[in-house]
Amino acid sequence: MGSGAETARAAAVALGASGEKVGVIQVHLYRPFSVSHLLAALPASVRGIAVLDRAKEPGATGEPLFQDVVTGLAGAVSGGERATMPRVIGGRYGLSSKDFTPAMAKAAFDELKACNPRTGFTLGINDDVSHSSLTIDETFMIEKANVTRAVFYGLGADGTVGANKNSVKIIAEDAGLYAQGYFVYDSHKSGAQTISHLRFGPEPIQAPYLISQAGFVACHQFVALERQDLLRLATPGATVLLNAPYSATAVWDHLPRPVQKTIIDKKLGLFVIDASAVAREVGLGRGPIPSCKPASSPFPGCCRVTRRSPISKTP
């Protein structure tokens, strides 16, 4: 149901192109539940069904949609409307507002192919209590190569979210491209971390989930590198733009060693800019506003870091 169905449908199309015999049925109206529409949409050749609910009902024999599907199919078999009863398993996704990705949909399809598929499984969270989580293949990706994926890390009220919203509007209206933006932050937006997920491409973007592999990663707060792995989403060879209070010749020795290792291992292109200093110089306050564009740099007001060996001292 909802955006989860669109994600599952996209995953099914990708798997079908590789020879998998899978499909997706999207429920548009849940209650009253229409068994007749379900039977009309369900091919007679179906042998297994995984019903995904975005809910958890402790103590129940199954989640609401799962129970309705099982009851409807059992009634159809007993009434002679259907010859066989397919195997039906149920799972949960999106609990605790977790994202639902094509890789998670693939995990549900893979579970159906198992000799004894589990029911009551969980997607998206690490269920370390009942151990119901399915293994996710994080390398499974269905997005096209012509889609630009960028992730920006900032702090609430530093202008990152507002600038990215404007970028989406400008690119969609003036550049003739399709654009999408997802912005992740909590109720304590001012001063708390914000993450902007932006996609741009020449075709309509149907990806109602966050970016898991980005070709461009921007970090607008240097201290965040010491607390989080901000480069985990960067693909090999991706570009990293770092706002730092150090020059391009000095910033490498101030990077945490794990960050240096990631940059070297993934062969990332690192660019640095002291945007706060640039903003103060031109009288624009404390915000990270880029300055003029040097001829040797692909980004305004920034310089490329060329050092590619980790520091020897203990971070």
CATH hierarchy, class of the largest domain:
Alpha Beta
Question: Looking at CATH, which topology of the largest domain would you report?
Answer: Pyruvate-ferredoxin Oxidoreductase, domain 3
Average pLDDT number: 88
Strand content: 15-25%
Q: Estimate percent helicity.
A: 25-40%
3D structure, described in words:
This protein has about 325 residues and is an alpha/beta fold. The protein has 2 domains: about 5-120, Rossmann fold; about 150-305, Pyruvate-ferredoxin oxidoreductase, PFOR, domain III (Pyruvate-ferredoxin Oxidoreductase, domain 3, 3-Layer(aba) Sandwich). It is built from 7 helices and 10 strands. The strands form 2 sheets. It has a 7-stranded mixed β-sheet, with helices on both faces. A 3-stranded parallel β-sheet has the order 1-2-3, sandwiched between helices. The model is unreliable at about 285-300 and about 310-315 (pLDDT under 50).
Q: How would you briefly describe this protein structure?
A:
This protein has 315 residues and is of the alpha/beta class. The protein has helices at 3-17, 35-41, 64-78, 102-112, 160-174, 257-266, 275-281, and strands at residues 48-53, 87-92, 121-122, 148-155, 178-184, 193-201, 214-219, 234-243, 269-273, 303-304.
